[in-house]
Write a structure and sequence with these properties.
Low-confidence stretches: 12-22
Helix content: 40-55%
Distance between the termini: 38 Å
Strand content: 15-25%
Oligomer: single chain
Number of helices: 11
Mean pLDDT: 94
Number of strands: 12
Bound molecules: alpha-L-arabinofuranose
């Protein structure tokens, strides 16, 4: 811990005692203002274009924001992600940006960073808010409204599906992750308000293309009458399209495929008529992280949820955006 941080932590503790708060302050650690910061970014995995784009966004921002970036890749393991944060704490980072792979297993990492006097910002995914809270255990969550993303996909399906009976297979993201929980809730709650639709199967494909393909292959055998596939991300949607085509089905004609993210492959699938819609979930968090961190260091009160606005891509605009996609 640097001398300045020790002084800041000490002042915060003394202020807490005077306010009758005891030793553990119910506030995130402060961040001193300085020229350069040692910044930790603990990525969960690099198995899809979204993750790669997010990591690149942090690397790209490092120079312009005067960061010495310590970046790790937990290779799909929540336990390794916790260990990566431990190692960053030991290396003396000033601030931590963490996309927690799952909602509960990453809570110890958040708690340990706070105990070490390191302010943490959760990016893109969150942790269980009943246990770890913004404005206390971490500074803020930077990210999309995942419930709203699922709801917007459902609303698009309700408006655009022209059959009498929608038989839906849902490909869920990583079990226990905030986007899987929330995208399911947003979609299911909205679509089931319309009695034309039934969700006949809902299973995890772990946000991965090949797993999406495999799960779709299995579910197609059990539910050959499926005519809508809702995937929690584009990679699984592309995997599902592969499975459908292998089974002789025609995505875009006899099966409507819808999902979330806005990757280049998904926009191309929309242009090719194989996918109906993808609601954006931006991975470009680097510049936002820089801005929010600077505001925090300047002593500004940070909103507990710095919300990212998402666009929607359909055949009407996919071609206009494919060049900026990842
Ligand atoms: O947390 C955001 C999700 O995680 C993205 O939709 C997905 O592609 C990624 O792995």
């Amino acid at each position: 811990m640097t001398m300045n941080r020790r002084i800041l932590m000490c002042s915060a503790a003394i202020a807490g005692i005077f306010l009758g708060l005891g030793a553990a302050s119910a506030e995130p650690p402060p961040l001193e203002q300085k020229e350069r910061y040692k910044v930790g970014f603990a990525q969960m995995e690099s198995n899809n274009p979204w993750r790669i784009a997010e990591t690149k966004s942090f690397h790209d921002t490092a120079e312009s924001c005067n960061w010495d970036l310590v970046a790790t890749d937990a290779a799909g393991s929540a336990a390794k992600q916790v260990a990566d944060v431990d190692s960053m704490i030991a290396q003396g980072i000033d601030v931590l940006f963490l996309p927690p792979r799952e909602e509960k297993p990453l809570i110890p990492a958040v708690m340990k960073a706070k105990a070490a006097g390191i302010p943490t910002f959760l990016v893109d995914r969150s942790v269980d808010p009943a246990v770890a809270k913004p404005g206390d255990h971490f500074v803020a969550f930077l990210g999309s409204d995942f419930i709203d993303q699922g709801k917007r996909v459902a609303e698009w399906v309700i408006e655009n599906f022209d059959g009498d009976k929608g038989v839906i297979v849902e490909l869920e993201g990583t079990t226990g992750s905030s986007p899987a929980n929330d995208r399911k809730k947003g979609f299911d709650d909205r679509i089931l308000q319309d009695e034309r639709f039934e969700i006949v199967a809902s299973q995890s494909g772990d946000f991965a293309r090949d797993q999406g393909r495999q799960v779709m292959e299995t579910l197609l055998q059990a539910h050959p009458d499926v005519n809508i596939v809702y995937a929690h991300n584009d990679e699984m949607a592309i995997g599902a399209i592969q499975a459908l085509e292998l089974a002789g089905r025609k995505p875009g004609e006899d099966v409507l495929v819808v999902s979330i993210d806005g990757t280049r492959d998904a926009l191309q699938a929309i242009i090719d008529g194989k996918m109906g819609v993808t609601v954006e979930s931006s991975p470009f968090f680097g510049p936002l992280a820089c801005e929010v961190m600077k505001r925090y260091a300047a002593g500004e009160e940070i909103e507990h949820w710095v919300q990212v606005e998402d666009r929607i891509f359909t055949k009407d605009n996919a071609a206009d955006h494919i060049d900026e996609a990842y």
